Amino acid sequence: MAGLPGAARARSTSPGSPPALDGSFLLSPLGGLMGAQAVLGLLVWSLIAATTYHLHAAYGWVMFVSLFFWILTLLFFVTYLLQLHEKFYMIPWPLMLMIYNAVATVLYITAFVTCAAAVQPTSWRQWDYNRRAAASFFACVTMITYAVSTFFSFRAWKGLGSNAATSQVTDHA
After folding, report:
1. Which structural domain, as residue segments, surrounds residue 157?
2. Which residues contact residue 157 at a Cβ distance below 8 angstroms, ignoring those fewer than 6 apart?
3. Is residue 4 part of a domain?
4. Number of Cβ within a 10 Å radius of residue 21
5. Which regions form coiled coils (predicted)?
């Protein structure tokens, strides 16, 4: 479980103890990427929501993808920030995060392409054009952050960069 916060220490929280904030999570690559995904995803769906997206079916897909993954990213962020993933130790969190980030990357690719293809410079409302173009840019950047998270999640799932002896001790403590 290398790369995940709390992976180097033994499980110190018991199932009955209250959740505690994990400050090291915010400084970890996973925490930083999740924070960036939350901010960028918020930008994407708020920029689309500020336009007349209901007149164009393509923007409905972009809105769905960005809002859906924004909510799920916030849930994962809070789960890791409050160390709730340690209370549910029977769930394979590294595998789950890897699958989640891979699916988010693929769907954000479709949302980015859809959003970019639907931007029309001859729009009768200039501010709609600007917001849609900005949403397209931020969808691309968000897609890249999910792809990087997929890479780090894959490394954490495979245990790359950790010592086999220490991972055996900390995983079963």
Report:
1. 92-162
2. 94, 95, 97, 98
3. no
4. 10
5. none
